Amino acid sequence: MKRINESDAVIRLPRQLYDADNFTVLFYAANPSVYISKTKADVVKTENGEYLYPLDWIELQTLGSGVLQFRYYGGVADATLIDDELNTYREYTAEYYIVSSVTPTPEPSSGSSGYDYAVITEILRTISNEKSRATSAETELSNSLTAETATRQQNVSDLTDLINNEFLRATAAENVISGVVDTKLDFSAYTPTDLTNYYTKDEVDQAITSIDYVSAATFNAYSSVTDSKVDAISGVVDTKLDLSAYTPTDLSDYYTKQEIEDKNYLTTHQSLQNYYTKDEIEGKNYLTTHQSLQNYYTKPEIIEIVSQIEGGGSGEIGDIVCGDWA
Fold first, then answer.
1. How confident is the model at residue 322 (pLDDT cuts 50, 70, 90)?
2. Number of structural domains, the chain?
3. What pLDDT shows up at residue 314?
4. 69 and 145 housed in the same domain
5. 9 and 63 share a domain?
6. Which among 109, 25, 10 is positioned nearest to 56, based on CA atoms?
7. Domain match, 118 and 100 both
8. Has residue 231 been placed in a domain?
9. Is residue 276 part of a domain?
10. Is 320 within 8 Å of 301 (Cβ atoms)?
Protein backbone atom coordinates (compact mmCIF):
# COMPACT_ATOMS: atom_id res chain seq x y z
CA MET A 1 0.00 0.00 0.00
CA LYS A 2 1.33 3.41 -0.98
CA ARG A 3 1.51 6.03 1.74
CA ILE A 4 0.71 9.41 0.17
CA ASN A 5 1.35 12.83 1.66
CA GLU A 6 1.16 15.99 -0.52
CA SER A 7 1.09 13.91 -3.71
CA ASP A 8 -1.53 12.91 -6.26
CA ALA A 9 -3.04 9.46 -6.72
CA VAL A 10 -4.20 7.47 -9.74
CA ILE A 11 -6.92 4.83 -9.23
CA ARG A 12 -7.28 1.99 -11.74
CA LEU A 13 -10.90 1.05 -12.38
CA PRO A 14 -11.67 -2.62 -13.11
CA ARG A 15 -12.63 -3.13 -16.77
CA GLN A 16 -15.89 -4.86 -16.00
CA LEU A 17 -17.09 -1.81 -14.05
CA TYR A 18 -16.45 0.55 -16.94
CA ASP A 19 -18.71 -1.36 -19.36
CA ALA A 20 -21.87 0.07 -17.74
CA ASP A 21 -23.64 2.92 -19.57
CA ASN A 22 -23.65 5.20 -16.49
CA PHE A 23 -22.08 4.92 -13.08
CA THR A 24 -20.81 7.03 -10.20
CA VAL A 25 -17.83 6.31 -7.93
CA LEU A 26 -17.53 7.80 -4.41
CA PHE A 27 -14.00 7.89 -2.96
CA TYR A 28 -13.62 8.16 0.86
CA ALA A 29 -11.15 7.33 3.63
CA ALA A 30 -11.92 7.85 7.32
CA ASN A 31 -15.60 8.74 6.94
CA PRO A 32 -17.83 7.40 4.09
CA SER A 33 -20.02 10.48 4.45
CA VAL A 34 -17.10 12.68 3.30
CA TYR A 35 -16.31 11.69 -0.26
CA ILE A 36 -15.11 12.74 -3.71
CA SER A 37 -17.66 12.08 -6.46
CA LYS A 38 -16.58 10.94 -9.94
CA THR A 39 -18.68 9.80 -12.92
CA LYS A 40 -17.96 7.84 -16.08
CA ALA A 41 -17.16 11.11 -17.86
CA ASP A 42 -14.19 11.65 -15.48
CA VAL A 43 -12.46 8.38 -16.45
CA VAL A 44 -9.19 8.65 -18.41
CA LYS A 45 -8.47 5.82 -20.83
CA THR A 46 -4.79 5.02 -21.49
CA GLU A 47 -3.24 3.65 -24.67
CA ASN A 48 -2.91 0.14 -23.19
CA GLY A 49 -6.63 0.01 -22.38
CA GLU A 50 -6.57 0.89 -18.67
CA TYR A 51 -9.27 3.07 -17.11
CA LEU A 52 -7.95 5.56 -14.53
CA TYR A 53 -9.32 8.11 -12.10
CA PRO A 54 -6.73 10.86 -11.39
CA LEU A 55 -7.15 12.41 -7.90
CA ASP A 56 -5.06 15.40 -6.88
CA TRP A 57 -3.74 16.01 -3.38
CA ILE A 58 -6.05 18.97 -2.76
CA GLU A 59 -9.01 16.61 -3.12
CA LEU A 60 -7.42 13.71 -1.21
CA GLN A 61 -6.50 15.59 1.95
CA THR A 62 -10.11 16.68 2.45
CA LEU A 63 -10.92 12.99 3.08
CA GLY A 64 -8.69 12.88 6.15
CA SER A 65 -6.14 10.18 7.07
CA GLY A 66 -6.95 6.56 6.29
CA VAL A 67 -7.04 3.86 3.63
CA LEU A 68 -8.49 5.15 0.37
CA GLN A 69 -11.69 3.26 -0.57
CA PHE A 70 -14.44 3.73 -3.11
CA ARG A 71 -18.03 2.67 -3.74
CA TYR A 72 -19.26 1.89 -7.25
CA TYR A 73 -22.91 2.69 -8.08
CA GLY A 74 -23.92 1.25 -11.46
CA GLY A 75 -26.51 3.01 -13.60
CA VAL A 76 -26.33 6.28 -11.60
CA ALA A 77 -24.95 9.27 -13.53
CA ASP A 78 -25.05 11.80 -10.65
CA ALA A 79 -24.03 11.48 -6.99
CA THR A 80 -27.04 13.53 -5.92
CA LEU A 81 -29.30 10.70 -7.20
CA ILE A 82 -27.66 8.05 -5.01
CA ASP A 83 -29.89 6.56 -2.32
CA ASP A 84 -28.21 3.72 -0.35
CA GLU A 85 -31.61 2.22 0.40
CA LEU A 86 -32.54 2.05 -3.28
CA ASN A 87 -29.19 1.77 -5.05
CA THR A 88 -26.86 -1.18 -4.59
CA TYR A 89 -23.12 -0.62 -4.74
CA ARG A 90 -19.86 -2.49 -4.75
CA GLU A 91 -17.13 -1.47 -2.34
CA TYR A 92 -13.39 -1.58 -3.16
CA THR A 93 -10.14 -0.72 -1.38
CA ALA A 94 -7.49 1.24 -3.27
CA GLU A 95 -3.78 0.75 -2.78
CA TYR A 96 -3.25 4.10 -1.08
CA TYR A 97 -3.08 5.27 2.55
CA ILE A 98 -3.72 9.00 2.97
CA VAL A 99 -1.80 11.03 5.57
CA SER A 100 -3.72 14.28 6.09
CA SER A 101 -4.04 16.86 8.87
CA VAL A 102 -7.72 17.41 7.99
CA THR A 103 -10.35 15.76 10.19
CA PRO A 104 -13.26 14.91 7.85
CA THR A 105 -16.74 15.91 8.90
CA PRO A 106 -19.85 15.30 6.75
CA GLU A 107 -21.25 18.38 5.02
CA PRO A 108 -24.00 19.84 7.25
CA SER A 109 -27.62 19.47 6.32
CA SER A 110 -29.89 22.51 6.30
CA GLY A 111 -29.99 24.16 9.72
CA SER A 112 -27.02 22.20 11.17
CA SER A 113 -23.48 23.34 11.81
CA GLY A 114 -20.31 21.91 10.28
CA TYR A 115 -17.69 22.52 7.61
CA ASP A 116 -18.21 23.52 3.99
CA TYR A 117 -15.73 21.20 2.29
CA ALA A 118 -15.98 23.05 -1.02
CA VAL A 119 -14.60 26.12 0.78
CA ILE A 120 -11.97 24.03 2.59
CA THR A 121 -10.89 22.46 -0.69
CA GLU A 122 -10.55 25.88 -2.30
CA ILE A 123 -8.56 27.19 0.71
CA LEU A 124 -6.23 24.19 0.61
CA ARG A 125 -5.77 24.60 -3.13
CA THR A 126 -4.95 28.30 -2.67
CA ILE A 127 -2.44 27.46 0.10
CA SER A 128 -0.82 24.85 -2.14
CA ASN A 129 -0.55 27.31 -5.04
CA GLU A 130 0.89 30.00 -2.79
CA LYS A 131 3.37 27.50 -1.38
CA SER A 132 4.48 26.54 -4.89
CA ARG A 133 4.76 30.20 -5.88
CA ALA A 134 6.80 31.02 -2.74
CA THR A 135 9.09 28.04 -3.35
CA SER A 136 9.61 29.13 -6.95
CA ALA A 137 10.33 32.72 -5.88
CA GLU A 138 12.75 31.47 -3.21
CA THR A 139 14.58 29.34 -5.77
CA GLU A 140 14.75 32.24 -8.23
CA LEU A 141 16.07 34.59 -5.52
CA SER A 142 18.65 32.01 -4.42
CA ASN A 143 19.84 31.55 -8.00
CA SER A 144 20.01 35.31 -8.46
CA LEU A 145 22.03 35.78 -5.25
CA THR A 146 24.35 32.94 -6.23
CA ALA A 147 24.96 34.48 -9.66
CA GLU A 148 25.47 37.93 -8.13
CA THR A 149 27.93 36.55 -5.57
CA ALA A 150 29.89 34.78 -8.31
CA THR A 151 29.98 38.00 -10.34
CA ARG A 152 31.22 40.00 -7.36
CA GLN A 153 33.89 37.41 -6.59
CA GLN A 154 35.02 37.52 -10.23
CA ASN A 155 35.12 41.32 -10.12
CA VAL A 156 37.23 41.25 -6.94
CA SER A 157 39.58 38.72 -8.56
CA ASP A 158 39.89 40.82 -11.71
CA LEU A 159 40.52 43.96 -9.65
CA THR A 160 43.19 42.18 -7.59
CA ASP A 161 44.95 41.01 -10.77
CA LEU A 162 44.78 44.54 -12.19
CA ILE A 163 46.30 46.06 -9.03
CA ASN A 164 49.07 43.47 -8.98
CA ASN A 165 49.87 44.07 -12.66
CA GLU A 166 49.93 47.84 -12.14
CA PHE A 167 52.19 47.39 -9.12
CA LEU A 168 54.63 45.27 -11.14
CA ARG A 169 54.54 47.77 -14.02
CA ALA A 170 55.17 50.70 -11.67
CA THR A 171 58.04 48.82 -10.02
CA ALA A 172 59.64 48.11 -13.40
CA ALA A 173 59.25 51.75 -14.45
CA GLU A 174 60.77 52.86 -11.14
CA ASN A 175 63.80 50.63 -11.72
CA VAL A 176 64.29 52.07 -15.22
CA ILE A 177 64.05 55.64 -13.93
CA SER A 178 66.49 54.88 -11.12
CA GLY A 179 69.01 53.53 -13.67
CA VAL A 180 68.67 56.63 -15.82
CA VAL A 181 69.02 58.98 -12.84
CA ASP A 182 72.07 57.13 -11.60
CA THR A 183 73.76 57.54 -15.00
CA LYS A 184 75.29 60.96 -15.57
CA LEU A 185 74.33 62.34 -18.97
CA ASP A 186 76.92 64.17 -21.10
CA PHE A 187 75.31 67.15 -22.84
CA SER A 188 78.52 68.78 -24.04
CA ALA A 189 78.13 67.62 -27.65
CA TYR A 190 74.36 68.19 -27.78
CA THR A 191 73.14 70.71 -30.35
CA PRO A 192 69.53 71.82 -29.95
CA THR A 193 67.34 71.42 -33.08
CA ASP A 194 66.42 74.65 -34.82
CA LEU A 195 62.59 74.87 -34.63
CA THR A 196 62.13 78.28 -36.23
CA ASN A 197 60.60 76.74 -39.38
CA TYR A 198 58.27 74.40 -37.46
CA TYR A 199 54.72 75.03 -36.31
CA THR A 200 53.97 74.77 -32.61
CA LYS A 201 51.26 72.38 -31.38
CA ASP A 202 48.89 75.30 -30.67
CA GLU A 203 49.38 76.66 -34.21
CA VAL A 204 48.68 73.26 -35.74
CA ASP A 205 45.59 72.71 -33.56
CA GLN A 206 44.26 76.13 -34.50
CA ALA A 207 44.77 75.48 -38.21
CA ILE A 208 43.12 72.05 -38.03
CA THR A 209 40.06 73.31 -36.13
CA SER A 210 39.17 75.71 -38.94
CA ILE A 211 39.06 72.90 -41.54
CA ASP A 212 35.72 71.26 -42.37
CA TYR A 213 36.31 67.58 -42.99
CA VAL A 214 34.23 65.29 -45.17
CA SER A 215 34.25 61.53 -45.44
CA ALA A 216 36.25 59.79 -48.19
CA ALA A 217 33.01 58.53 -49.78
CA THR A 218 31.54 62.05 -49.87
CA PHE A 219 34.76 63.49 -51.26
CA ASN A 220 35.03 60.84 -54.00
CA ALA A 221 31.37 61.28 -54.99
CA TYR A 222 31.75 65.07 -55.05
CA SER A 223 34.98 64.86 -57.08
CA SER A 224 33.32 62.55 -59.60
CA VAL A 225 30.36 64.90 -60.07
CA THR A 226 32.62 67.98 -60.21
CA ASP A 227 34.89 66.41 -62.84
CA SER A 228 31.92 65.59 -65.06
CA LYS A 229 30.56 69.14 -64.69
CA VAL A 230 33.97 70.63 -65.50
CA ASP A 231 34.19 68.46 -68.61
CA ALA A 232 30.71 69.56 -69.70
CA ILE A 233 31.51 73.25 -69.12
CA SER A 234 34.82 72.93 -70.94
CA GLY A 235 33.00 71.50 -73.96
CA VAL A 236 30.58 74.45 -73.99
CA VAL A 237 33.32 77.06 -73.53
CA ASP A 238 35.42 75.54 -76.31
CA THR A 239 32.42 75.77 -78.69
CA LYS A 240 31.81 79.22 -80.21
CA LEU A 241 28.15 80.20 -79.84
CA ASP A 242 26.36 81.47 -82.99
CA LEU A 243 24.02 84.28 -81.88
CA SER A 244 23.18 85.61 -85.37
CA ALA A 245 19.78 83.86 -85.43
CA TYR A 246 18.84 84.84 -81.85
CA THR A 247 15.70 86.98 -81.58
CA PRO A 248 15.16 88.75 -78.22
CA THR A 249 11.77 88.26 -76.56
CA ASP A 250 9.35 91.16 -77.07
CA LEU A 251 8.54 92.53 -73.60
CA SER A 252 6.49 95.55 -74.71
CA ASP A 253 3.25 94.02 -73.36
CA TYR A 254 4.77 93.19 -69.98
CA TYR A 255 4.90 95.35 -66.85
CA THR A 256 8.24 95.89 -65.19
CA LYS A 257 8.55 95.14 -61.48
CA GLN A 258 8.67 98.86 -60.72
CA GLU A 259 5.50 99.52 -62.74
CA ILE A 260 3.66 96.81 -60.80
CA GLU A 261 4.79 98.30 -57.49
CA ASP A 262 3.69 101.81 -58.60
CA LYS A 263 0.10 100.58 -59.12
CA ASN A 264 -0.19 99.80 -55.39
CA TYR A 265 -1.85 96.42 -55.79
CA LEU A 266 -2.74 94.61 -52.58
CA THR A 267 0.19 92.63 -51.24
CA THR A 268 -1.30 91.40 -47.95
CA HIS A 269 -4.49 89.62 -46.92
CA GLN A 270 -7.41 92.06 -46.42
CA SER A 271 -10.00 91.72 -43.67
CA LEU A 272 -13.42 90.40 -44.82
CA GLN A 273 -15.13 91.29 -41.54
CA ASN A 274 -17.61 93.77 -43.18
CA TYR A 275 -18.50 91.46 -46.07
CA TYR A 276 -21.34 88.97 -46.24
CA THR A 277 -20.50 85.34 -46.94
CA LYS A 278 -22.31 83.48 -49.72
CA ASP A 279 -24.41 81.58 -47.14
CA GLU A 280 -25.38 84.84 -45.37
CA ILE A 281 -26.49 86.44 -48.68
CA GLU A 282 -28.59 83.39 -49.62
CA GLY A 283 -30.19 83.48 -46.16
CA LYS A 284 -31.57 86.99 -46.80
CA ASN A 285 -33.62 85.77 -49.81
CA TYR A 286 -32.62 88.59 -52.16
CA LEU A 287 -33.96 88.39 -55.71
CA THR A 288 -31.77 86.19 -57.88
CA THR A 289 -33.78 86.29 -61.18
CA HIS A 290 -35.28 89.04 -63.37
CA GLN A 291 -38.80 90.11 -62.27
CA SER A 292 -41.58 91.03 -64.72
CA LEU A 293 -42.33 94.80 -64.97
CA GLN A 294 -45.51 94.33 -67.02
CA ASN A 295 -47.79 95.93 -64.37
CA TYR A 296 -45.47 98.92 -63.74
CA TYR A 297 -45.55 102.40 -65.45
CA THR A 298 -42.46 103.63 -67.18
CA LYS A 299 -41.00 107.02 -66.33
CA PRO A 300 -42.38 108.69 -69.49
CA GLU A 301 -45.87 107.28 -68.75
CA ILE A 302 -45.73 108.71 -65.22
CA ILE A 303 -44.67 112.10 -66.55
CA GLU A 304 -47.57 112.14 -69.03
CA ILE A 305 -50.09 111.22 -66.29
CA VAL A 306 -48.80 113.94 -63.98
CA SER A 307 -48.96 116.42 -66.84
CA GLN A 308 -52.61 115.57 -67.54
CA ILE A 309 -53.49 115.88 -63.84
CA GLU A 310 -51.83 119.27 -63.54
CA GLY A 311 -53.58 120.46 -66.76
CA GLY A 312 -57.00 119.65 -65.28
CA GLY A 313 -57.78 117.06 -67.83
CA SER A 314 -60.08 114.18 -67.13
CA GLY A 315 -60.36 110.83 -68.61
CA GLU A 316 -59.38 107.24 -68.14
CA ILE A 317 -55.67 106.55 -68.35
CA GLY A 318 -54.72 102.95 -67.86
CA ASP A 319 -56.17 101.82 -64.56
CA ILE A 320 -56.31 105.44 -63.24
CA VAL A 321 -59.55 107.39 -63.70
CA CYS A 322 -58.90 111.16 -63.68
CA GLY A 323 -61.48 113.87 -63.14
CA ASP A 324 -62.91 113.20 -59.72
CA TRP A 325 -60.10 113.56 -57.13
CA ALA A 326 -62.27 114.53 -54.18
1. very low
2. 2
3. 52
4. no
5. yes
6. 10
7. no
8. no
9. no
10. no
Q: What is the chain's Cα-based Rg? A: 58
- Domain end (from 179, 204, 224): 179
The predicted model scores a pTM of 0.34
Distance CA 39, CA 283 (A): 82
The pLDDT assigned to 21 comes to 82
Pick the closest to residue 52 from 62, 42, 63, 37 (CA basis): 42
Cα–Cα distance measured from residue 175 to residue 182, given in angstroms and rounded to the nearest whole number: 11
Judge contact between 106 and 64, C-beta under 8 A: no
Instruction: Tell me if 189 is assigned to some domain.
Output: no
- Closest-CA residue to 62 (of 17, 11, 156, 127): 127
Size of the chain, expressed as the number of residues it contains:
326
129 within domain boundaries: yes
The answer on 175 and 148 residing in a single domain is yes
Model pLDDT, residue 167: 84
- The CATH number of residue 25's host domain is 2.60.40
Residues 6+ apart with CB under 8 A from 316: 322
Give the H/E segment covering residue 163: helix 117-182
- 325 band by pLDDT with thresholds 50, 70 and 90: very low
Return all residues near 190 (Cβ < 8 A) that are at least 6 apart: none
Q: How far apart are CA 91 and CA 78, in angstroms?
A: 18
Kindly report which listed range (48-52, 91-95, 118-122, 132-136) carries the lowest average pLDDT score.
Answer: 118-122
What 3-state DSSP class applies to 317?
Answer: strand
Its domain, for residue 164, covers 114-179
